[in-house]
Design a protein that fits this description.
Pfam families: Abhydrolase_6. This is Alpha/beta hydrolase. The protein has 259 residues and is an alpha/beta fold. Helix content is 35%, strand content 15%. Helix 4 crosses helix 5. The radius of gyration is 17 Å and the shape is globular. It starts with a helix and ends with a helix.
Amino acid sequence: MRNLIASGLALAAGLLTPAAQAQAPAKPFIVLVHGAFADSSSWNQVIPILRKNGYFVIALENPLRGVRSDAAEINSVVSRLQGPVVLVGHSYGGSVISAAAAGSRNVKALVYVSAFAPQAGETALALTGKFPGSTLAGALSPAVPLPGGGKNLYILQGKFPAQFAADVNPAQAYLMSVGQRPIAAAALTEASPQPAWTRIPSFFVYGDHDKNIPPAALSFMAARAHSRQTVVVKGASHVVMVSHPVEVARLIERAAATH
């Protein structure tokens, strides 16, 4: 699986040749990074809006193995883009983009979509428990041991819709539950390195009915990062980009226009 992910990232980078980029609009690149228990299809409703408005969009597969290693793979693509980049992360993907952009010169803005924005030394697990409200622990299946050590975490399919995507069409939420990608348990307890949001403008959007990351935690992280704009979507679940793609796309475009 890891070789497949690496091959996918390499393919994405290969598409970004000078000839290919010459055809791209003169706007910032939008790079989308999904979170745990999801995949790049979670951006499917946002991508057409951005493309219609002239943005070159790349939705990368996040390996979900560890903050530093995942960030290195995302950065391997971002660093090859010849132009400014808006880096967007959902959930655990926020930890990844915070690290991936830390040493980058071409990332102009960070957008956190129901996402973690950890300080150096913090973990996703600790931030989840910093405020009451998360019911994720009770929705997880027993951890799955990995052959080389460590464990994978999944959300139980029967609990996935209510936990993860309560405001999404039930048929779509079911498909999301079946296609979810697991995260290594160690990734949620890995201490984050120095984050990029301390020097790069950040933007936040999340739902006030998020059951994975407590809205109070998301509000705390947005305030701490001095978010340029924070959008709270009433009634939205953890996958606000699926249920409210217009609001998410608009905030990404505002981030792309920032100076």
